[in-house]
Design a protein that fits this description.
Strands 1-2 form a two-stranded antiparallel sheet. The protein is mainly alpha-helical. About 70% of the residues lie in helices and about 5% in strands. Helix 2 runs antiparallel to helix 3.
Length: about 130
């Protein structure tokens, strides 16, 4: 195992932990937003991208680790399809975010059904973190 391999595994691992922490924080954010019955489409797209990127990091760690340590043929044959799926999800998330940015639609919100007319859709606890 070379220095570059160790450096890459370390960088991928740190990035993976950070994305998991971000997903946990966004989960709490979305829980509050779903209770308020209004969700930002841009934030939902960013969450999808972050999830796909996290899967891509997990696959990158798997590929890097297996190239260093060696794996059996079955696991090695699954690496390329797993990477293709992860990359496709990440690219799809980037396409959605790019479309929202260039059409200046970052402020679109989805109002979930079940809201009664006259009822506010604002965050019930805007200062709560």
């Amino acid at each position: 195992m070379g220095v570059v391999d160790i450096l890459l595994l370390f960088a991928y691992s740190i990035s993976f932990v950070c994305t998991l922490l971000l997903i946990a924080a966004l989960f709490l954010y979305f829980r509050r937003r779903f209770r308020a019955k209004v969700v930002s489409l841009f934030m939902l797209s960013a969450f999808f991208f972050l999830d796909a990127y996290t899967v891509q990091l997990a696959v990158a760690i798997w590929i890097r680790f297996s190239s260093v340590c060696g794996t059996d043929t079955l696991l090695a044959s699954l690496e390329l399809p797993a990477w293709a799926i992860a990359q496709t999800g990440t690219a799809f998330g980037l396409i959605i975010l790019t479309l929202l940015m260039y059409t200046k639609r970052q402020d679109l919100f989805i109002v979930l059904s079940g809201s009664k007319k006259g009822e506010t859709n604002a965050d019930p606890n805007p200062n709560q973190k």
